[in-house]
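Risk register update: the risk of archive-format incompatibility is retired. Evidence:
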Amino acid sequence: MTHKAPSQIRIGADYGERKVLADIAECGWHCMNVLEDDGHPPWSFTIGLYETWRHPELIILGRSRATAHHVLDRIAAALDDNHRPDLNQPTSDLVPGSTCFLVEVADRYYYDYVGYARWFYRGKPFPLYQIVWPSNDGYYPWSPNAPKSVKEWQPILGKVPTNAH
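Archived output:
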């Protein structure tokens, strides 16, 4: 699929902005990674899925940059092949051996977590879903038995799905 450039690269745009725009023009999306800092978990999120495929942007918290990029790239490749994931159902297609849930992110978290996506969409609304994965012990952050570290490493940015266990 050939992707159209969603906007022109501005003169004076910094390297990060140019990279986001170039990746979206070439691939249809960009993966933004935020590194772990002072005990806060790392996170990665997409920019461009909504522009290119009218699919919600995605965010993953607490996974390594490589793992998060792999998961997000699988979804982008599927979208490019016209296969859309069901956002309302758990999926075992993203992280080998694990079932992931997709949680719609509440607007109040956009400012703290997806600043570059907000910049890209220039204040226009866009949907965002969090990919929630279980711990090695099989606990999701909303599980009563989930250790405190699991809950801190993967805060839930929206409502827990009704089909979550």
